[in-house]
Every structure is written in structure tokens, then in C-alpha cells.
Amino acid sequence: MFPRCLRTGVAFLLALGANGSRLQSAHAQQQVGFAVPRPASEHPLARVLKFAREERAYLQQTVRDFTCRVTKRERIDGELQDYYYIDMCVREQTHAGGRMTQPLSVMLEFLGPSHVEGRRALFVAGQNDGKLLVRKGGRRFSYMVLRVDPFGPGVRRESLMPITEIGFSCLLDRTIRILQQGVAADPSGDNTIVEHVTTARIDGRPCQMVRITHPQRRDGLEFFSTSMFIDSALSVPVRFEVYDWPESPGQTPPLMAEVTYTNLTLNANLDDAIFSPANLRGR
Questions:
Q1: Which class does domain 2-280 fall in?
Q2: Residue of 161 and 208 predicted with greater confidence
Q3: Which of 131, 218, 219, 235 has its CA 20 to 30 A from that of 64?
Q4: pLDDT digit string (tens) for 101-115?
């Protein structure tokens, strides 16, 4: 099932809904998609895989860091959670000459729902003994700062996506893995439909959308359908949707996760001070 694929890093998803009253402008407006034409011998996912690899290479070469507002909703242990609203700063991990030159660095500030409002979370790869530093936020003991296992049960109860995997490079790595898994699970491609929409919009911005659907549940396939929206000007993913198979034909597929990036700024030149533990305290 989908939660297992997310927790093992095989997911078409990041910590990224769009229908809540606080994010009406991010509603995905789109025309009906059309199936992507392909040679008869080519798997439906072949061109998507090629695009994902090219997108990963582009992002690794051009995006050093970014800031954004994340709005997400996930189904955890069978229950669809409330919308979470998070301001996020990320420095991507970089390498040169076979060594890491910049560790993945993430600072999150939670704006809602109310039980996490004011929470801040900091992760810098290779620092703080691998722990996630969290200012609790919420209604009680809001300024307590805790050292938390980023893969612990408390974290998994609130998010399917580990903070250690946030970032565009990690996102595209996961996308490629799940596409490869889809090819292996459906080698003939007869249970894979790929649609491409060129007229989608997220938060008023033009996007392209790719939707993958597996009509029949089969071993090795982790979702009924998933959609990824790419900002046409920035060339980065800005929304994801994942649905499980409906219990019976004709029923609405249950939403497993939706994540949207808005107010996205690339290469904001974030410095070390942004990712200092001192920023966990204060107001």
C-alpha cells in the first residue's frame, strides 16, 4: 500500500492541499488530459522516465537553495489528516570532486493547524548527531526544544515524508525509482496510462501536469494514480497528488496525499544563520 512505499522512499511525493480556505488560489485548474502518443514498442513510462532524469540533472545544476510555503494533507494510518501549512527553507546537498560541499539543510516553521502552530524544525545532515531539533509549538510548552529521531514513530504519525529527504534532488530520485518500479511491475504497459496536460495552473501560475494511472491493482504497483505539476517558468515541481484504488468500480479513488509549493523562490542565497539552532527560539 502507499504508506509503505513512501516510508521506503519509493514515492511520487514530497512534503507538498489546495482546497482549503487558506489556499483557494492554489486550486489546480486544468483541461481534460490527453494520452501521450508513443511508438507501439515503447513503454508508456519511458518518456516520463527520460523527462525525470533530465529534470533531476537540471535541478542539480541550477538550484542551490529555495524557500516556499508548503500546504499538505496526507492519509496516515487510514485517516486523512488536516491541512498543514509550513514555511520552508532548504539548502540542497551538493558535491564536488567526490565529496560533499554543502549538507542538506532544512528549516520548517509551522503555521497551522493550531496544535502545531509555532512549531519549528531544523535538520542539517551530519550535525546534531543526526537528530531533528524541534521547538514544540502548539498550545502547551510551546518553547520546549527537543532532539528527535527523524525516523521515529512520533514524526511518522504527522508526516509520511522524512525531513531527511526534503529537497528537489531527493524528490526526483524517488520519482525515478517509482517509475522504474512501475515498468518492472507492468512490463507490457497495458495497465499504465500516461496523460499530459499543458494548461494546468497552480496558484495562478502556468504549469504542465503529468498524470500516471494504473487502472488495475497489481503486485509492485503502489498507487492508482499520481499527478505531478511542473511550473512552466521555474521548471520545478510545485504540486503532487496521489490516490489509492477505489474499493469498487465507479467509486471515487481515496486521496492518499496532496502537497503544494507556493511563494517559491529559487536560489535565495540562504546562509548558515538561517539553519542555526538559535532560530528555534524566540517569538
A1: mainly beta
A2: 208
A3: 131
A4: 888 999 999 999 998
